[in-house]
Amino acid sequence: MKFVHTSDAALTFEQWQAARDGASGPVALQITNDFDVEQLAGELSRFSRIELVFPKWVDGRAYSQARLLRARLRFQGELRAVGEVLVDMLPLLARTGFTAVQLRAGESEAAARQALDFFPGHYQGDTAEHRPWFARAAA
Amino acid sequence: MYAYTDFDRNFVRARAAQFRNQLERNLAGTLSDDEFRPLRLQNGWYVQRHAPMLRVAVPYGELHSRQLRQLAHIAREHDRGYGHFTTRQNLQFNWIPLVDSADVMDLLADVDMHGIQTSGNCIRNITSDALAGIAPDEVVDPRPYAEILRQWSTLHPEFAFLPRKFKIAITGAAEDRAAIAWHDIGLQLVKNEAGAVGFRVLVGGGMGRTPVIAQEINAFVPWQQILVYIEAIVRVYNQFGRRDNMYKARIKILVKAEGQAFFDAVNTEFGRILTLDEGGREHIIPEAELARVAAHFVLPKGLQAETPRDIFEHAAPAYRRWLERNVHTHRLSGYRAVTLSLKRSGVAPGDATHEEMDAAADLADRFSHGELRVSHDQNLVLPWVREADLPALYEAAKVNRFATANIGLLTDMIACPGGDFCALANARSIPVAQAITERFDDLDALWDIGDIDLHISGCINSCGHHHSGHIGILGVDKDGSEWYQVTLGGADGSTLSGAAAPGKVIGPSFAADEVPDVIEAVIDTYRSARQSGERFIDTVRRIGIEPFKGPANAQRTLTSNKEGSPA
Predict the structure, then answer these.
(1) Are residues B386 and B431 in the same domain?
(2) Is B458 within a domain?
(3) Where are the beta strands (DSSP E) in B296-404?
(4) Which of B10, B22, B278 sits opposite A71 (nearest CB)?
(5) Residue B391's domain is classified under what CATH number?
(6) Would you call A132 and B152 a contact, using CB atoms and an 8 Å cutoff?
(7) What are the structural domain ranges in chain A?
(8) Comparing C-alpha atoms, which of B177, B228, B179 is closest to residue B199?
(9) Which of B3, B120, B144 is nearest to B60 (CA)?
């Protein structure tokens, strides 16, 4: 997991729509958590980074967006969590396909790293390990 | 019953360590109370009226005597000596200081227990039929599937912060003893014409201020695909469930608003997971995994069918009543399931002291291979009792007041902890439950009234399932005082109750002191109106609620029957 400390420039989907024909090179995109990510199928290779937003940390929609971007749409670039991103979200972010986080101001990076280390494994498969525990145990 | 593997055990230990870290950060001031709240909730820790409340998960209601003794120990050492069994088959403690909470999680982990997802906006502890695996009317034993679902739903990374709480119930019997139509997802194991096992899937049920009965979204999902199907449902809900208003955030509102469009979205998503997603077929359950888990749910060691006996032969009247109400038929010849009633006068429904928990554990060891079940009706069940042992069990159960022969009767009521404990409640439940219990303390009268579901909730959150009671009592707040709305004709979906349905209100709210009179008037109306052998719910269905209104409203001494009185 990459920890970033400042906001980087990213286009909204509307800005991307206006700019896509003239754009050259990889682009960073930020989408809201009610956006249907399957709309991006077919042009994902044009994004180096997609930022998914947590307007409140208890609003879990971006976890599903991330999972779909990775598992269904095979997005290969950086997936960054921005907004109200707290230490204790790290295990969930790591398992749904996020590769970078911008923690909310004041959150401890050390505590966030520690939060990733509690569990020896998980029951269900995720974007990092597709197989559930029962499949791994049987292998 | 399921025995933890090393993986399971290490997992629960890790969860306890994670919680301790969160608690320490909270106590040190680096994790604010507001941000600690959702984290502790997902471990079962609420902050209630007097102290934090801890809800301990009892997965699908199965409990071992060793675990019950540890719960007794926690009650004794960390609480004020008692706990409360809930309608969702869990156990709640009411008085544990938050600073002790991490130590208590370690004590639970010592006996393979935890509070994972017993609260919070996530997939909650999965409930099932208290007679799973022993009921003669069972088509498929739901416990292996319930355990597989438990594992799949535990700390699911995508579904930890849903719009609202999410409850799944599963049954495998002809009779629905798990009220599945009242759940966000209701699962009924069935066999199709070819004899293959699958799930009839219901979605969008729920209580609260908008009671909704779940609808069938799929008549047959092959058991191998059930995790994928549920993933599709929960993903659609996570994306489209309302988050702007917590009272409209349950999946029932989404299902009601979208109707067929919701069903289509789920079925499309299901297909897309299986055909498009990387790893999308990994959660198809292999035969070997079902077999591995099912191997835990075989008959206890040394137990075998015996020659059935006439258990009523020479039975004295009091013993006969206990046999009739508290002893249930069993799929295994020569065996019975026995309910230990936690409904007795002077005690809140579902409460048990630490002495009683220890005593129940002893009874389980002596008579039921160490196994117990927590029932949806807030009693304990011994699942493996030899018919030959019934007289001895009866005598032993009497000593601890577990032998009240009232299962299914008026005093076997469901009640939430209410305003005595719960910070959400508008009104107290326990005094009302006790007043009714005292009013109907004559066992002959109770028997004459017969089968009836009386459910009491202290607020519209409906933890006491008032919507599904044949008689429902709901605590409401008006100008800072307690009032009680009475409904008739609700049903949980059992054969006795009929198709799941919410009850209908019989008039403006009553004062607490009027409630026992109102219930008595309702019961008297039934007794004079009933036809031979007709049960309460059937009379209500036949004559409607109108004939009950006059006698009930005539009991008002403190409230007015006019429009504009508290409702």
Answers:
(1) no
(2) yes
(3) 327-328, 335-340, 351-353, 371-374, 380-386
(4) B278
(5) 3.30.70.3340
(6) yes
(7) 2-138
(8) B228
(9) B144
In a domain, B294, yes or no: no
Domain A2-138 has CATH 3.40.1190.10: no
A71 chain-B contacts, CB cut-off 8 A: 277-280
Check whether residue B140 and residue B252 sit in a common domain. yes
Instruction: Answer for the pair B520, B445: CB distance below 8 angstroms, yes or no.
Output: no
Domain that holds residue B232: 134-288
Between strands B327-328 and B215-222, the pairing is unpaired
- Chain B, 234 to 253: residues with Cβ < 8 Å from chain A are 235, 238-239, 243
Q: How many domains does chain B have?
A: 4
H or E stretch including B392? Answer: helix B390-399
Kindly give the confidence (pLDDT) of every residue in chain B, 567 residues in length, as a single tens digit, with 9 standing for 90 and above. 999 999 999 999 999 999 999 999 999 999 999 999 999 999 999 987 777 899 999 999 999 999 999 999 999 999 999 999 999 999 999 999 999 999 999 999 999 999 999 999 999 999 999 999 999 999 999 999 999 999 999 999 999 999 999 999 999 999 999 999 999 999 999 999 999 999 999 999 999 989 999 999 999 999 999 999 999 999 999 999 999 999 999 999 999 999 999 999 999 999 999 999 999 999 999 999 999 999 999 999 889 999 999 999 999 999 999 999 999 999 999 999 999 999 998 899 999 999 999 999 999 999 999 999 999 999 999 999 999 999 999 999 999 999 999 999 999 999 999 888 888 888 999 999 999 999 998 989 999 999 999 999 999 999 999 999 999 999 998 888 899 999 999 999 999 999 999 999 999 999 999 999 999 999 999 999 999 999 999 999 999 999 999 999 999 988 776 544 444
Query: Which chain B residues are Cβ-neighbours of A64 within 8 angstroms?
Result: 158, 235, 238-239
Of A58, A61, A122, the CB nearest to B38: A58
Q: What is the CATH number of the domain that holds B145?
A: 3.30.413.10
